[in-house]
């Protein structure tokens, strides 16, 4: 293993490997820390999405509130903090909706998915974030039209929508 790059948020390593066919090779691994993605659901069943500019892809996207798990913080603590910071929303009850590995070929990170039930505004959203409140049908339509492209948001939304349609809570991780 050779460290290639390190910053406060990212570390990249090169690893010498032997492929399945016995030939030598090299593999890069990015360590960026774990994260959270939160679906906020109102008491009447509507869902909150955010629209935010993403520098790496040079455009605004629709997604769910998301962010990193700070050192010493549990994923649920991070989810509560991120939801409040980004959207100004708080929630009464929280449910785990499992985990996703966003790009497991090269990225060593887990994103913890949460459902925030009975979400309500308690302060203004973070500057630069537009808060959208949609019904289930609109959420499905946005997904079908590829207007939600953030992987963890898709996983969280679809997990919730599938389980809420069947009347059973998510069981993968929570």
UniProtKB/TrEMBL annotation:
Q: Where is the Nudix hydrolase domain?
A: 31-156
List required co-factors: Mg(2+)
What the entry lists under InterPro entries is as follows: Nudix_hydrolase, NUDIX_hydrolase-like_dom_sf, NUDIX_hydrolase_CS, NUDIX_hydrolase_dom
Q: What SUPFAM superfamilies does the database record attribute to this sequence?
A: Nudix
Gene3D superfamilies in alphabetical order = Nucleoside Triphosphate Pyrophosphohydrolase
Question: So which domain of life are we looking at?
Answer: Bacteria
Q: Which family does it belong to?
A: Belongs to the Nudix hydrolase family.
Name it: NUDIX hydrolase
């Amino acid at each position: 293993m050779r460290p290639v790059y390190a910053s406060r948020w990212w570390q990249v390593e090169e690893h010498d490997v032997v492929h399945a066919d016995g030939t030598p090779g090299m593999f890069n691994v990015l360590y960026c820390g774990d994260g959270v993605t939160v679906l906020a659901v109102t008491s009447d069943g509507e869902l909150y999405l955010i629209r935010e500019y993403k520098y790496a892809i040079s455009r605004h996207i629709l997604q769910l509130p998301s962010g990193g798990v700070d050192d010493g913080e549990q994923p649920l603590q991070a989810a509560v903090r991120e939801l409040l910071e980004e959207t100004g929303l708080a929630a009464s009850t929280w449910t785990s909706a499992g985990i996703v590995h966003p790009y497991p070929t090269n990225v060593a990170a887990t994103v913890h998915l949460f459902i925030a039930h009975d979400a309500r505004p308690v302060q203004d959203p973070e500057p630069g974030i537009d808060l959208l409140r949609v019904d289930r049908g609109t959420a499905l339509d946005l997904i079908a039209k590829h207007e939600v492209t953030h992987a963890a948001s898709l996983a969280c939304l679809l997990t919730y929508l599938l389980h809420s349609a069947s009347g059973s809570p998510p069981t993968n991780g929570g």
